[in-house]
Design a protein that fits this description.
By secondary structure, the protein is α/β, with parallel strands linked by helices. Helix content is 43%, strand content 18%.
Length: 357
């Protein structure tokens, strides 16, 4: 059963670095709200009096390969610098440490090679799953995670059993799947978010904050642009089965480990954990130009950048080129799926800020 993998590394035409502008747009959309919330709740004086010795530590959980993480980290440092001025603290006396976290297979070489030479912080890479402990107790002041927390730690176990009601025959995601499949995904996601929050509760200093930005849906809704795009890939994989390029079992046993939560779900997860208070939570439309049509070639390149490694790990690298060649040939079908009866779904992101109590 294929599990989630790192994004496509390097700086080539198919890399995540060159095909993640949609994720960058989501960060840009949330920038003003993030600055407003962080300036309101951060207490730099309390951080420094709590034994940090003028060191503020920021962690990016699921950083990938850049450049989005570099932009986000500098944005947060600028916000902290502004708060220092507001609290009468000379920001020149503050040292910043940024810890870049992603899976062991992440292309950290590209990440650090793309880093600015005049950065104003110390940097280190921390490989490992953010569903486990990553940092020492009470060592992180600000944790940040964008376009990462919708990835499950694993495909739900029920989807691995051919005799289970959740065996997802002919599909690769829970969008448009039977109820047992949807429930299996939801169960795994709740388990994962609880593990994430429990780990962060131990690592965050009192008053520390977590900024989370991930694909999300309205309460009671399952469909999301990304899920629809994954369904599009699934339909091509099924066509490849009919053409003899793949075995039926290869598709039936493959599922993309993504979940797109609602605010109602996320509020329940946070309240059940009990270690954080919700500072801000809202569902945002991440399209910077909401009137502009979606460029389907760009959309498919983005889709490839975050699914290629997961698909290849399950079906083999040789399937990637024909799969995405067919996807480009059928881009009008993706357009038709994304424009539901002429109505664009809209790339929605769930923006959440939590503070350690």
């Amino acid at each position: 059963m294929a599990q989630s993998t790192a994004m496509v590394g390097g700086a080539g035409a198919n890399s995540y670095a060159n095909n993640s502008t949609a994720q960058r747009d989501a960060v840009t959309t949330a920038k003003e709200a993030m600055a407003e919330a962080l300036i309101e709740v951060l207490d730099i004086s309390a951080f420094l009096s709590n034994g940090s010795k003028n060191l503020v530590t920021i962690a990016d959980l699921g950083c990938s390969v850049g450049p989005n993480t570099h932009i986000a980290m500098q944005t947060i440092i600028d916000i902290v610098t502004t708060k220092c001025h507001l609290q009468g603290i000379d920001p020149k006396t503050i040292e910043f440490q940024v810890l870049f976290n992603d899976q062991n297979t992440n292309d950290f070489n590209t990440l650090f090679a793309s880093m600015s030479g005049d950065k104003n912080y110390f940097a280190a890479g921390v490989p490992g799953s953010f569903y486990d402990r990553l940092f020492p107790t009470s060592s992180i002041h600000i944790a940040y995670s964008a376009s990462s927390l919708h990835w499950l730690s694993r495909v739900p176990e029920e989807l691995e059993d051919e005799n289970s009601p959740a065996w997802n025959k002919g599909r690769i995601h829970y969008t448009n799947a039977p109820e047992p499949v949807v429930k299996a995904y939801a169960k795994q996601y709740e388990k994962d978010i609880d593990a994430f929050l429990r780990a962060r509760a131990k690592e965050m200093v009192p008053g520390g904050v977590i900024v989370m930005l991930m694909p999300g849906v309205c309460d009671g809704v399952l469909r999301h642009d990304i899920g629809v795009s994954i369904d599009f890939l699934g339909s091509i994989l099924m066509d490849m089965v009919k053409e003899g390029m793949l075995k039926q079992h290869q598709v039936d046993s493959f599922n993309i480990p993504h979940v797109y939560p609602s605010m109602k779900q996320m509020k329940r997860f946070v309240e059940n954990n009990g270690s954080f208070r919700i500072v801000k939570m809202e569902l945002q439309n991440a399209w910077l130009n909401k009137e502009a049509p979606i460029d389907m070639v760009t959309a498919i390149m983005h889709l490839r950048a975050f699914t290629e490694m997961t698909i290849a790990s399950h079906m083999g690298c040789e399937i990637i080129e024909p799969l995405f060649a067919k996807a480009l040939q059928r881009k009008q079908k993706l357009s038709d799926m994304l424009y539901d009866a002429g109505h664009k779904i809209g790339l929605r992101y769930l923006f959440t800020i939590l503070q350690r109590t």
